[in-house]
Amino acid sequence: MSIWILSTGLFAAFSATAVLSEFGGLRERTALMTLAASNPALLAIRGVPDGVAEGAVITFQVFTYLAIMAALMSTFLTVRHSRGDEEAGRAELVGATAVTRSSALIATLSLGALANVGIASAVGLGFALAGLPLAGSVLVGLATGAVGLAFCGIAAVAAQLARSSRAANAIAGISIAGAFLLRAFGDALGTASDGPLRIASAWPSWLSPIGWAQQVRPFGRASAWPLLLDVALAAVGAAVAVMLVRRRDLGSGVIGQRPGPARASRSLRGSLGLAWRLQRSAMIGWCSGALLLGVFAGGLAEPAVAAVGSNASIRAAVHGLVPAGTSGLLDTFVAAIMTFLGVLAAGAAIQAVLRARSEETDGHTELVASGAVHRGRLILDPLAVASLSIVGVLVVGGVSAGVSFAVSGHPERIGSSLAAALVQLPAAAMFAAVSALVLVLAPRVTVAVGWGLLAIGFVFAEFGGLLGLPEWVRGISPFAHTPVLPGSGAHWWPAVAMLAIAAAVAVAAAALTRRRDLTL
Questions:
Q1: What is the DSSP string of 450-487?
Q2: What is the rounded distance in angstroms from the CA atom of residue 224 to the CA atom of residue 175?
Q3: Which of 37, 88, 238, 363 shows the greatest Cβ crowding within 10 Å of its Cβ?
Q4: Is there a contact between 176 and 75 (Cβ–Cβ < 8 Å)?
């Protein structure tokens, strides 16, 4: 929790400083916000502009990301200490003492509230340290914390509906994606309000907890009342969750689990088939995200690039999203979006490896290892599924981008879109292999290290240029070494080197697996 709060506060501070450095002049800020106000794609990604004041521009650039970070922290925290504790048996121990059925859940929600007070303070302090007005900085912090508080309530309900922490996280994660899409759709349909550089969101944005917090407009016509909607949603969610936890059996969910078939299929007679069976539902979810991202890349990239026009500062900002230049602005835009696709593929691969860790802590791996299974396959099979997940996510994203380009009149981009997606494979494979090695060497920190490395790699690759990080720091991220496609002048040897390193790390992890004991 402290890492979430600290990293979110640092992200707010560094982002604010970087945006002030990049768009410090009124002319640059006006050009940026004029572009944003005229382009639905940018409105969908960033939110609605609210004038050209320094704080308003910074809030437009980073608030959506801050809100998502708070929502994810709250979701993981709430599910971990409610449904997760039930799975681990800790809730049963606590329930055996002189406490009520809802005491543990109320304690979890109280912890979530304190965590969001912390994240609100960190974000507000980060903005204030960057030199922005204190009142506006406090409002941005409160808006971020309010989003997190709302998703504490949503996650608490999800933990009562689902029978496992994975399903609860999935339900809460879908709610975060839904909140983002509603806000994006509503903002993309927004209309000019009180001047061309201010946009009023359409009604779909008012259905989203993120959209409510966005309406605070901390550095314009500030109003804190929309935050009451987030607080009310949190209160309703908490009340519903407390009611449900008092009525259901410990270890069960409101949504019942369907019984499986009486006999397993032939594919489940081996450990590889079991690893695939455990991960296939999650892979479908990651591929669905890749499909949406690909459609966005193919359908909206060209209008967004056309809106950039001849503005040199905006063109430079877009080129800064990728580590090396490409031949055209559209190619650069597509390459930048495909880096997000690489992050999705790496996330799917890391989750496949982490599933092996959860199977180990649940005691299921011990049963598999007691059979005629080579010890090395305990890690090689999850890695094989992770590799399949990477390919699946990249192919779905690349093909959907190509088809979307073809529908918009550019069938020649089908091949280049698929190539731009597949070139992300080496970087994603690096994250999977390193996570597997960490699982073998230090299993208890696998989850934190796996997701932490992906977060660092994403921030360094996507925001390294905006944050003004030195080149060698940005080079820590595998995504910084990915060949830039489409375009000319791609360098392939870093991709080959990353594939070789990933293979070597995977072999080392398999060899070390034979010498380690299973741990809980």
A1: HHHHHHHHHHHHHHHHHHT--HHHHTTSGGGGS---SS
A2: 24
A3: 238
A4: yes
